[in-house]
Amino acid sequence: MIRKLAITAIAALLMPVPGWSVDFDGASRGGDIMERISQVELSIPAEAIAAQDQDKGIFDWLFGKKKQAEWTIMVFSSAKNDLERFLLADINEMELVGSTDKVNIVVEVGRMEGYDASDGNWTGVRRYLIQKDSDMTKMGSEMIQDLGMIDQGDWRNLAAFGKWAKEKYPARKYMLIVSNHGDGWLKNKAAEGRVENKGISYDEESGNHITTPELAMAMREIGKVDVFSTDACLMQMAEVVYEIKDLTDFIVGSEETEPGAGYDYETFMGPIAARPEMTPIEVGRLTVDAYADQYDKLNQGYTQSLARASAVAGLLTATNSFADAMMASGEKALAKTARNATINYAIGENRDMYDFTHRVVEGSQDQNVKAAGQALMDYITGSLMIHNRTRDSQGSFWGPPQQYTLSMGMAAYFPYSGLANGYSELAWARDSRWDEFVTWMNQP
Fold first, then answer.
1. What is each CA distance from 245 to 56, 94, 184, 227, in whole angstroms?
2. Residues 15, 19, 22, CA angle at the centre, nearest 5°?
3. How far apart (Å, rounded) are the C-alpha atoms in residues 114 and 84?
4. What CA–CA distances, in Å, run from 285 to 229, 290, 386?
5. pLDDT, tens only, 21-45
6. What sign has the CA pseudo-torsion 44, 45, 51, 53?
């Protein structure tokens, strides 16, 4: 009621002021206009003052602020590589669900010549608000922006997308998905006599990609998101999650490679649209389950897990205690044997942390190692990993069978000799003693 009265009062003040009649003898019947105005008392309701104090703005208070959605899901998808047809199919899967008044699905997708000619064979980078559409042969959503051929391997463009999406489509909760090739942290580029961290979002048109430290830089600019997910290979490892631990609440990813088809976005996004009040932890679990259920039906091996970002710092503490106990024990031969037997992935030096620790604990004669190792295993399965789904691989043309059920959700870097170039640049290497431990392990 007060808001309505205030709007009426402001409208009255903005109406044209009536003319004043004046006698030619100099005596004004209407009186002095400024004097009359000065006698008007304009009372601003306390609610409006409070709104102004909270930076809501008087017009937000008067007319109502744009209603927030429950979720904005931001998908950064670089299809400028051999994944183009899969990533375009992903967008068509999203369109089977579509945005609602409570769930915004926003995509930035890039294409280049040479891989897929569907949907008009357009090229460049575009932003879309995903709208419901059943045509799986082309995108029917509204294109919001055409950015031209920008570099999706430049972390600043990921940052720009996230900031734009948050500003244009405000919500109570945010999820950021980066969809593309992934390589974990690994650094290996000798072009021009230099090396660069590998990471995610490979753009073949520019020859660039977003490194692990750059991923953190982009997310820092975007601002905290509730759930961060990588629809990409090999990203769920200590070196990656530690870099972004303060920039999200929950992290979804795979220790192993993902098939080209990646996520089933209809299965994943449909339940969120149907029940937008889902919490971030529920959305994280759903992301893992939708992925796992898809590949269970195909009898295809996989790994996929949900980590609690606030527990990643504790992972470092528990890992340091275990590494210190191992180095003090002198059981170097055991460490090497355990490493070589531990489940590993497409990049052979990526191995599961829990499986390695379990093998050490089983073989150690040192009580300090056993205690620290058990504490680390308990921390991984208790505090760090919220949800973990795996299925053994039966093997294929691409590789032998793999016992992925040994994977407990978090990988780490286990080099066979010296540390690869760039490892020391990672926050995990700087803050933990893992680099000292694996260096010790590889000594004679």
1. 31, 28, 15, 11
2. 160
3. 10
4. 11, 9, 8
5. 333 334 444 444 444 434 444 444 4
6. positive
CATH of 69-309, one of 3.40.50.720, 3.30.70.260, 3.40.50.11970, 3.90.640.10: 3.40.50.11970
- β partners of residue 143: 128
Token pair for residue 277? Answer: 């009040």
Count of residues in the chain: 444
25-34 CB burial, b ≥16 within 10 A, e <16: eeeeeeeeee
pTM of the model: 0.83
Give the full edge-to-edge strand order of the sheet including 142-148.
142-148, 124-129, 103-111, 69-78, 171-179, 225-231, 248-253, 302-308, 385-391
DSSP 3-state assignment of 232?
coil
Residue 7: what pLDDT? 46
Task: Give me the residue spans of the domains in the chain.
Answer: 1-11+32-65, 69-309, 314-441
Question: Are the C-beta atoms of residues 75 and 106 closer than 8 Å to each other?
Answer: yes
Per-residue model confidence (pLDDT) at position 27: 40
